[in-house]
Amino acid sequence: MSLIRINRPEAGIAVLTMNRPERLNALSFDLVDDLHAALDEVGADNAVRVVILTGAGRGFCSGLDLRTIGPSSVSAGLRPPAGGMRSQAHIADLGPHLRRIPQPAIAAINGPAFAGGLALACACDIRIAARSARMCVQFVKVGVGGCDIGISYTLPRLIGGSRAHELILTAREFDAAEAERIGLVARVVDDGQALDAALDTARTLLAYSPFGVTMTKEVMWANLDASSFDNALHLENRTQILAATSGDVLEAAKAFAEKRPPTWGV
């Protein structure tokens, strides 16, 4: 049985739920395997336009399950350090995998998001947190470096280098209110409402051109690493011309004139 539930509550939306509630959805190797498989499935499904990632029960994801440390499915038969490197890369690739899927990914942080759980949330495009959710970059607390699963890349880009250094080095817990104040989450909602709020945001995205939304995600991530303002503009310009050839711009103008919602192409 998969440790990731895939639900399609309405057309265009897929909800991926990490399903180890008894362990606050901690990352076992089986869960990592299943999350990769689920991202492959929804990423290749052209009917899915927005993906929501959340956790079952009272937690989002409490990080690596230290009780399950050992060889993963991708490193079976390999000796250290090769086996360890392959297992590490497999876990760490969850962040880039969330980035690679064409659909925007929304993290509905319904409870604790620690270590790898926070890293997964940071790799999503939008984050919404329940009021009681607590977060922590706790890697350094368990005897390894504080930078893992892409957190040293994503967190400084979301909240700035100074704040990211402090959170990563001290590994202190912080609450949803602070996460909103520093710009890590877009919204804080009442407990039990994180998924509903994520669904509302997903519906907003569904009202826009599918190609336009996909290109927005792609360009935003690419331009986080743009070497110059000019290079960022060149990518934007090319994308806008590509989008203009889809017919969606003409449809948007026609819909505006006719006072109706646009009918977008796939």
Automatic annotation (TrEMBL):
SUPFAM superfamilies: ClpP/crotonase
InterPro entries referenced in this protein's UniProt entry, alphabetically: ClpP/crotonase-like_dom_sf, Enoyl-CoA_hydra/iso, Enoyl-CoA_hydra_C
Pfam families in alphabetical order: ECH_1 (PF00378)
Family: Belongs to the enoyl-CoA hydratase/isomerase family.
Protein name: Enoyl-CoA hydratase-related protein
